[in-house]
Automatic annotation (TrEMBL):
InterPro entries: Phytyl_CoA_dOase-like (IPR008775). The lineage of its organism: Bacteria, Pseudomonadati, Bacteroidota, Cytophagia, Cytophagales. It comes from Dyadobacter helix. This is Phytanoyl-CoA dioxygenase. PANTHER family: PHYTANOYL-COA DIOXYGENASE, PHYTANOYL-COA DIOXYGENASE DOMAIN CONTAINING 1. Signal peptide: none annotated.
C-alpha cells in the first residue's frame, strides 16, 4: 500500500508545472540549450532511477569488454523507449512537468515524444564525441529538444554534458555521425563557440535543441554516470525522406515508418503536453 501511495505522490510531482526562470526561454532560443536547477526532487530521481537502472541492465545488449568497443560503444550503454517496457518508467517519461518545459522552450502549443533513451556511461566509459542529434532524425523542423536528466549529482569526473553555445545557428558538421571523425572535425570548428562544461547538481536538468553540438567527457569517477533522456518534437513536425542509413533506421524504429510528408503521430509518438486542453 505504501508503495502505491508513494508512486501516486511521485506521479503528482511529475505532473506539477515547473515555473521557468524569466530569462530561460530567451537563453534557450539564443544559445540552443538551457540548464535548470531543482526541476526534480532527490526522491523522484532515486525512485525512478532504480527502476530505469534495472531496465538498462535487463535490456542492454552490449556485453563486449571496453577494449573491444568502438568509440560510440565506449561512450555509453544506450537503451531506448523504456516507456514501452514498464509502467513506472512510462510515468516518468510521460511527465507533464518536463514536457511542458519542452513546449515552453520551443514556444509551441503541443509536443509529442520522439523517443526516450537511457544513457549510462560506465565507469571507465570514454568520451561522447561532438555531435548534433538531429543528424539522426528524419524530421522537417528544428523544433526538437532533448531533456538530459542525470539520475545522480554529476561531477566533472563523471563526464557531464557540454554544450557549444549557439552552434545550432550554423550549418557546420550537420552530416557527421558520432565518431572520432566528428570529434576531430568539430574540435577544430568549435573554437568560435563558447563551451559550457559544468557539473550538474542533483535535480538539475538540461534541455538542448536538435542541432546544438554537444559532447561529454570520459567517466573517471569510479561509478556509473546514469542519465535518462526524452526527446520531444513540435506536434507540427513533418516526416521527411531519410537522408542517411541512420535516419532510415530511426524512421522505422521511432516513427513506425509513417508516410513521408505526414505528421509523426503514430502510437509510438504520443502527445505529452498540449495547451489545447
Amino acid at each position: 500500500m505504501m508503495e502505491t501511495k508513494r508512486s501516486a505522490l511521485f506521479e503528482k510531482e511529475l505532473a506539477a508545472p515547473f515555473t521557468l526562470p524569466e530569462e530561460a526561454v530567451s537563453f534557450f532560443t539564443e544559445h540552443g540549450y538551457v540548464k535548470l536547477k531543482n526541476v526534480l526532487s532527490a526522491e523522484i530521481l532515486q525512485h525512478y532511477g532504480d527502476i530505469i537502472t534495472d531496465l538498462v541492465f535487463k535490456l542492454n545488449k552490449l556485453d563486449k569488454p571496453m577494449a573491444d568497443r568502438t568509440t560510440y560503444e565506449k561512450a555509453f550503454l544506450q537503451v531506448m523507449n523504456l516507456w514501452r517496457e514498464d509502467e513506472e518508467a512510462k510515468a516518468f517519461v510521460f511527465s507533464a512537468r518536463l514536457a511542458k518545459i519542452a513546449a515552453d522552450l520551443l514556444q509551441v502549443k503541443t509536443v509529442r515524444l520522439y523517443h526516450d533513451q537511457a544513457l549510462y556511461k560506465e565507469s571507465s566509459g570514454g568520451i561522447t564525441p561532438w555531435h548534433a542529434d538531429q543528424f539522426y532524425w528524419p524530421l522537417s523542423s528544428p523544433k526538437t529538444v532533448t531533456v538530459w536528466i542525470p539520475l545522480q549529482k554529476t561531477s566533472m569526473e563523471m563526464g557531464p554534458l557540454a554544450f557549444a553555445e549557439k552552434s545550432h545557428e550554423v550549418e557546420i558538421g550537420r552530416d557527421l555521425e558520432i565518431s572520432d571523425e566528428s570529434e576531430a572535425i568539430m574540435a577544430q570548428q568549435l573554437g568560435q563557440f563558447h563551451i559550457n562544461e559544468e557539473p550538474f547538481d542533483l535535480g538539475e536538468v538540461s534541455f538542448h535543441t536538435g542541432w546544438l553540438f554537444h559532447r561529454a567527457g570520459p567517466n573517471t569517477s569510479g561509478s556509473a554516470r546514469k542519465v535518462m533522456t526524452m526527446i520531444y518534437m513540435d506536434a507540427d513536425q513533418v516526416v521527411t525522406q531519410p537522408k542517411n542509413s541512420y535516419q532510415q533506421a530511426d524512421w522505422e524504429a521511432w516513427l513506425a515508418s509513417k508516410e513521408v510528408g505526414t505528421s509523426p503521430d503514430s502510437e509510438l509518438n504520443p502527445v505529452l503536453y498540449s495547451y489545447h486542453h
